[in-house]
Predict the 3D structure of the following.
Amino acid sequence: MTAITSSIDTSTRPLLTIDRCSLDLPGSNGEPLEVLRNVSLSVNAGEFVSIIGPSGCGKSTLLNIVSGLMSPDAGIVALHGDPSAKRLGDVAYMQQRDLLMPWRDVLDNATLGLELNGVSRSDRRSRALEQLPTFGLEGFDLAYPSQLSGGMRQRVALMRTTLQQHDLLLLDEPFGALDSMTRTDLQRWLVGLFESSDMGVLLVTHDVEEALILSDRVIVMSGRPGHNAGELVVDLRRPRVDTDVTDERFIALKRELLQMLATVRAAI
Amino acid sequence: MSGGIATNDDIASEMSHEPVTTGSANAAKRGTLRLVFAFVVEWMPSLGLAIALFAAWEAIVRLKDIQRWLLPAPSGIGEELWSSRSTLWSNAVVTGEEVVIGFGIAIVVGIALAVAISYSRLLERAVYPFVIASQTIPIIALAPLLLVWVGPEKTSKIIIVALITFFPIVVNLVDGLRSADRASIDMFRTLGATRWQIFLKLQAPSALPFFFSGLKISAVFAVIGAVIGEWVGGSAGLGWLMQVSRPLFRTELVFASIFVLSAMAILLFLLVVFIERWALRHYPHGEQI
């Protein structure tokens, strides 16, 4: 079995494959609640894919499955084409809240993943200090979370998530709690970070513009139970640091995506 | 006077604003000094109230001409505190030793029990009812029995102190160890943490504010426990001193003993508060008292 898997050239396989995943969770009335039904998608190395859909369509649950926190009742989740690959601890996952620990300074929060995996303190520090400017946190290594703005806290959380350099990054509405100006800044910044790396990203969002600015493809999901409702290829050129949201092509894509979402909402 | 208070408030409010950027070790040292100063400023109002109450007490005793064996005036108690200082001191040392050892045992046993209870559902179901049951036993009834079992020396008092003080520590710490939210635990799991790492680096630090809440309650109970133990039998300690002074109508010595006992309890409480302030200095303010 292992021989067959290893003979396949993994570079031609998608980084992440989700194939017809379904999941029931216990509902509030004790009845099982169908959360996901036959959801399929894939993310290639170096590709940015967004999932957009109404609240309660199981987007976050899907990320919990991909991260390895949960298992689907049916269907396959494969990394590099390998359905038996360990995911928990090997996929970078940033949840909605920053979840910074108030008793740790920026450096110790950011290097938590390295610490848990036995990287020595001096190694951790040098790797983190090197990355601080990229995350706009230069000079804040010894600051505590209570001294930081919301946008900075979110960047520390993102640094914690990416410092282990896994090739797949999951983002669950990472900028949802921020004000719109900070959010726009961070979206631009994330585009730059992504374009200078070779990781694959799967982002869950509510925000149509966010999905378009960041993604190569947008998957539209419908709710109750969550299932695939459409896909949009975002053919805007990269780099996207200065993407003009009033540009004709952008507006056309936005209109198309909004129409898809309207159809999805009407169907619920 | 009011000007002085305003200045203190200004200093206090200035001190609550930590610099946004970080500093050197020198700044950290200055921060600790500020912490000490803020502490002193904060307790000024209660010190003022204490002085006012003692003054009122003194006035009432003098004006109503109350007998000193019935209710001595603060000045008389003060004189007694000075003249009997060596007796009070030697007995305070005995009580203090019982308090410190008993409290120490309670902390160690309390932490062990709380960790066991929060670690396993089975241990929780087995042990927790006994922890609660231990507090339903009236200590005042148990104390004479303990005296018979282990003798009138310090051991029986230490056991009583430990028995009274371990409960708030266990109950608060169990709650604290469960206070880490699901999302944070999930975050640790996605970073590849083991169960032990989650306990050590997430659940234990999250429990710290709860632990100190328990410790503060226990610090006050500890002195009461030692006095109960000495009250029912023994040959030394402030509880014993009160017990032998009362029939001799040396009410001033009873009050002097009470004063020293209160001072001990307050000192122990403040010590816990001060360690708490230091340990939780970066925690959100809502979790500090």
About this structure: The two ends of chain A are 43 Å apart (CA to CA). Chain A has two domains: 12-91+168-268, 97-165.
